[in-house]
Design goal:
By secondary structure, this protein is of the alpha/beta class. The protein is built from five helices and eight strands, in the order E-H-E-H-E-E-H-E-H-E-E-E-H. The strands form two sheets. The protein has a four-stranded mixed β-sheet, covered by helices on one side. It has a four-stranded mixed β-sheet with strand order 5-8-7-6. Helix 1 runs antiparallel to helix 4. The longest helix has 12 residues. The model has no long low-confidence stretch (mean pLDDT 89).
């Protein structure tokens, strides 16, 4: 079992899927729109919601992201979508070249919080917020750092 970051969007999930698929060199992309499965005739979705993403996933370099749109007609139940800083996606990999490639591609249209650099806890660490308001953290040595600090405490 693995934990998977799941991102909700306000009608722009398809655009986000395209961006993340390209930026992360996805090797598999799956997406289902609301129109792709039978609608309940008693509760048909409005035309503008049928093309929204019901469920999707992109797989890349052993990682996976899932995404969907929050339907306007469901906001009475789900609440409004609010961008926040309580969730971020952490990319941890030893391959610094790929890490740098992902960082550069995801920063397009976004904001670099901390450029990739050598820090006391990682030889390659950085943070950014992408064009969709999603926060990303990059770290080439997360496991080595954790293991080192834990072993020094014992």
């Amino acid at each position: 079992m693995s934990a998977i970051a799941y991102l909700n969007f306000d009608g722009i999930a398809e655009k986000a899927i395209e961006f993340y698929s390209e930026a992360l060199n996805a090797n598999e992309v799956k997406k289902v729109k609301f129109k792709d499965f039978p609608q309940d005739p008693n509760y048909p979705l409005p035309e503008n919601e049928l093309n929204m993403i019901m469920e999707s996933s992109i797989e890349f370099a052993g990682g996976k992201l899932m995404m969907s749109d929050i339907l306007p007609s469901m906001k009475a139940v789900t609440g409004e979508l609010v961008k926040g800083n309580n969730v971020l996606i952490s990319v941890v990999m030893d391959d610094k070249q790929t890490l740098e490639e992902y960082f550069n591609q995801l920063s397009v249209g976004g904001h670099v919080v901390m450029p990739l650099s050598n820090t006391p806890w990682s030889s390659c660490f950085g943070m950014l917020v992408d064009q969709f308001g999603v926060a990303w953290k990059f770290n080439s040595d997360a496991d080595k750092f954790l293991d080192s600090v834990i072993s020094n405490k014992q």
